[in-house]
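Q: Sequence in, structure out?
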Amino acid sequence: MLDAALVMSGVFLIAFVFAPVGMGGGMLFAPLLHYGAGWPIDGTLLAVSLTLTWAVSIGSGRRHRLQGFYDDAATKSALYGALMGALIGVGIVNALGDSLDTVFKILSIVMLIWALVKTWKKHHANDTADPVEPGVRKPKIHHFPLRLGSGLGGALSSVLGIGAGVIYVPVLQQQAGLMPRTSIGSSLSIMMVVVPVAIVALLSTAPSGLLGELSSLPWWLTPLPFLAFFGATSGAKFGIERISQENIMNIFMALVAIVLFRYVADVAQFNP
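A: Exactly. Output:
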């Protein structure tokens, strides 16, 4: 019961914190399920992490769209690459099989370091002020690099059970010229489409037994997506209205650093 309470509280908190920064929270949902609930890193964990990520993207994405922080043209262009990348990522998961645990943690370490470096640079760039006008972007979208970057995000989404906002947000800013809040809303809109495709592909191509494992965990699975949705909805509203982007990024970096150290310790122990 204590583990269940910890996981449920963690899901709500992660959704609340990640929603305002355009990320689905899978970067922390997966380690929460792995370390907090003791689940092995396999298709079941990835499917649940993606489900929670999807709930966050819906809750927070809806709030951002209502506020006008969304760009339709950039989102549609990015989806071409992201959807293809997600399907490729599912193939990688199935090909890895028993090697998924180690590969997952190594890739996660790389992703977490990259996220920390990018966030740290942005934090000290003195350009974190939110835009006044939602939806503003440069006239030209660079479609090929935008789709290439979003394709990488889609692949990592399937392999790591994440929303890949850590990839989508900077790619949308750099290749579509979106302002910070608009890139966040557009990133969440991409997740709303890509993540369910990854879930369906994962469940339909995974080895037999995955659906049986998920159906045997109803008391875990039923409340978690609702907690993620409500956490994201309240977090997006509260974050947009009352929390500065600087403080949100500070919380984000602290949480990512904790998970990073744990993954590094596990990999170092596995490979002395």
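Residues 180-205 form the longest helix (26 residues).
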